């Protein structure tokens, strides 16, 4: 029996503290409605913002996306794995 990870399916995780990372402090990072670049950007976060990772998924391009919650606003959305730095990397897919 083969097992696989379905694309664009949220895999909830225990909330994990993280922050948005990038090359320039304060620059914008898109927060999307789903796990992939094909989804609309529902908002943006800034490099350096604290978030909670609450889920993880693969896009149709096999890229890792994290479902995040912003602690102050409560906004929930998806950020590409290249822009998330986990505080306690637990060996997830990244």
How would you describe this protein?
The protein is mainly beta and about 90 residues long. The protein has a domain at about 10-55 and about 75-85. The chain has strands spanning about 10-20, 30, 40-45, 50-60, 65-70, 75-80, 85. β2 and β3 form a beta hairpin. The radius of gyration is 13 Å and the shape is globular. The two termini are about 25 Å apart. The model has no long low-confidence stretch (mean pLDDT about 90).
Short descriptors:
47% strand; two-stranded antiparallel sheet; mainly beta; 0% helix; globular; 94 residues; five-stranded antiparallel beta sheet
Measure the end-to-end span: 25 Å
Mean pLDDT: 89
| Estimated helix fraction | under 10%
The counted number of beta strands is 7
Number of continuous helical runs: 0
Question: In terms of topology, how is this protein built?
Answer:
Elements: E1 11-20, E2 28-32, E3 41-46, E4 50-58, E5 64-69, E6 76-80, E7 84-86
In short, what is this structure?
The protein is an all-beta fold.
